[in-house]
């Protein structure tokens, strides 16, 4: 997880690792698409996601138009989700969206990207921008897909994000109260005046306000 704090770092490591393997691995090229596909699947099964990413690069560079590409991308996206590597999961969902998704599949891909962003919120203090971005993304999704079958989940996700933002503002305001900075505290409490939730609506879960609504 440490190597994948950001998408750029994660992808950079793919190329670094491609150059640091054994001689046998370095000389692997010009293989059939099925060869790379099987390597991806085997690496996912053995929980070696760095290798799976490497083999995807080989499949993509040698067989861009292979019918195995869409399935390989989805395997990698869901595997990274399972490993809680949400930035890389979003990369693969984007890859699929750009290349293969029709309108119906795009609705699903946009939902999965939103889910990955939501689950990527680990610390409300460190992930303030991600919370705000996820709120805006959820609102756009509901406008774009008003009849989506995922609408109830997106609504639940959005409410939890609003709760997280509300509690964050209140906690920051309380901190300013303790340090005798009432003006600064008022700024953060004012942010909550237009919130769609109120403090009385919020019961913080034991494992954090985000919770696990997708279990």
Automatic annotation (TrEMBL):
<keyword id="KW-0998">Cell outer membrane</keyword>
<feature type="domain" description="Outer membrane lipoprotein BamD-like">
    <location>
        <begin position="36"/>
        <end position="185"/>
    </location>
</feature>
<protein>
    <submittedName>
        <fullName>Outer membrane protein assembly factor BamD</fullName>
    </submittedName>
</protein>
<keyword id="KW-0732">Signal</keyword>
<dbReference type="InterPro" id="IPR039565">
    <property type="entry name" value="BamD-like"/>
</dbReference>
<feature type="signal peptide">
    <location>
        <begin position="1"/>
        <end position="21"/>
    </location>
</feature>
<dbReference type="InterPro" id="IPR011990">
    <property type="entry name" value="TPR-like_helical_dom_sf"/>
</dbReference>
<dbReference type="InterPro" id="IPR017689">
    <property type="entry name" value="BamD"/>
</dbReference>
<dbReference type="Pfam" id="PF13525">
    <property type="entry name" value="YfiO"/>
</dbReference>
<keyword id="KW-0472">Membrane</keyword>
């Amino acid at each position: 997880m440490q190597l994948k704090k950001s998408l750029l770092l994660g992808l950079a490591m793919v190329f670094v690792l491609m150059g640091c393997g054994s001689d046998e691995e370095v000389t692997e090229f010009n293989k059939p698409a099925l060869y790379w596909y099987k390597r991806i699947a085997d690496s996912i099964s053995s929980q070696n996601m760095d290798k799976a990413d490497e083999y995807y690069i080989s499949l993509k560079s040698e067989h861009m138009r292979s019918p195995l590409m869409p399935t390989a991308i989805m395997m990698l996206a869901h595997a990274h989700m399972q490993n809680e590597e949400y930035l890389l999961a979003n990369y693969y969902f984007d890859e699929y969206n750009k290349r293969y998704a029709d309108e119906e599949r795009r609705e699903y891909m946009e939902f999965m990207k939103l889910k990955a962003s939501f689950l990527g919120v680990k610390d409300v203090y460190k992930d303030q921008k991600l919370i705000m971005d996820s709120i805006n993304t959820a609102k756009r999704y509901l406008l774009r897909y008003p009849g989506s079958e995922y609408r109830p989940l997106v609504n639940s996700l959005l409410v939890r994000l609003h709760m997280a933002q509300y509690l964050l503002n209140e906690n920051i305001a309380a901190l300013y109260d303790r340090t005798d900075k009432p003006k600064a505290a008022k700024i953060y409490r004012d942010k909550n005046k237009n919130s769609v939730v109120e403090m009385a609506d919020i019961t913080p879960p034991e494992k954090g306000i985000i919770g696990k609504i997708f279990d």
